[in-house]
Amino acid sequence: VKVAAVVPAAGSGVRMGTDTKKQYLDLNGIPVLGHVLKSLEASPVINGVVLTVNPGEEEYCRKAVVDALGLSKVTAIVPGGKERQDSVYNGLLALSGDYGIVVVNDGVRPVIDHAVLRAVVQAAAAHGAATSAVPAKDTVKMAGEDGFVARTLPRESLWLTQTPQAFRYEIIMEAHRRARLEKFFATDDAGLVEFTGQPVKLVPGSYKNIKITTPEDLVMVSIFLQEGTG
Ligand code: C5P
């Protein structure tokens, strides 16, 4: 089966506190998003890539990232939406070709582990939907509105979800369509599949797969990329 990757990169990056959006920040000489796309380009698992960017940034992104790096797997650059979920949906609609599996990888997760990517795709083929994730190291507490702890969640069963996530094409399309119809929102795509009642397989990810969100994340990711470890 053919495998497509949808890369949402239409975030505003307010938590980073920089003028340049985090997906375009320089990281070891190329934009953050460039690392993601280079990794997908190099992966034998991925056949095509659709990118979603902030409306109006399509041209800039094509020139400054896709063409500058000589990438050939990017088949479309389309505008994203208000929420991450909307951006991924726009990316899904822009897929052309008979893709059996769709991988979603955040545009701000530049340390892609090729073994994890392969494992997530295989798990999606076997089970319909899969997400990479790592066991929580910290103890997670739910806060009440008063600023006090409401309760402590049992750490043994907590996993922190990452991308890549992978899905059979019909399953991810149906999940997004139903979520839109029923106005259900989730911060990841596996969450939408869960909403439809379908199982999602957990695949061990990598602690190096940091989602660049706040300034200190860049320091860590820069080192991991220099190590050449994905
Ligand atoms: O918001 P968060 O940091 O979780 O974003 C994860 C990914 O989703 C980022 O790559 C960001 O650019 C993307 N995103 C998007 N459209 C939005 C919000 C976020 O494509 N409206």
Question: In terms of topology, how is this protein built?
Answer:
Elements: E1 2-9, E2 26-27, E3 30-31, H1 32-42, E4 48-53, H2 58-67, E5 74-79, H3 84-93, E6 99-104, H4 114-127, E7 129-135, E8 141-143, E9 149-152, E10 159-168, H5 169-181, H6 189-195, E11 201-204, H7 215-227
Helix pairs in contact: 5-6
Residues 8-11, 23, 52, 80-84, 87, 106-108, 213 line the site of cytidine-5'-monophosphate (C5P).
Report on the architecture of this protein.
With 230 residues, the protein is of the alpha/beta class. It has one domain: Spore Coat Polysaccharide Biosynthesis Protein SpsA, Chain A (Alpha-Beta Complex), CATH 3.90.550.10. It is built from 7 helices and 11 strands. It has a 7-stranded mixed sheet, with helices on both faces. The mean pLDDT is 96. The protein binds cytidine-5'-monophosphate. The site of cytidine-5'-monophosphate has 16 residues, from strand 1 and helix 3. The site of cytidine-5'-monophosphate (C5P) has 16 residues, from strand 1 and helix 3.
Which keywords apply here?
single chain; alpha/beta; Spore Coat Polysaccharide Biosynthesis Protein SpsA, Chain A; seven-stranded mixed β-sheet; two-stranded antiparallel ribbon; 25% strand; binds cytidine-5'-monophosphate; 2-C-methyl-D-erythritol 4-phosphate cytidylyltransferase; EC 2.7.7.60; nucleotidyltransferase; IspD/TarI_cytidylyltransf_bact
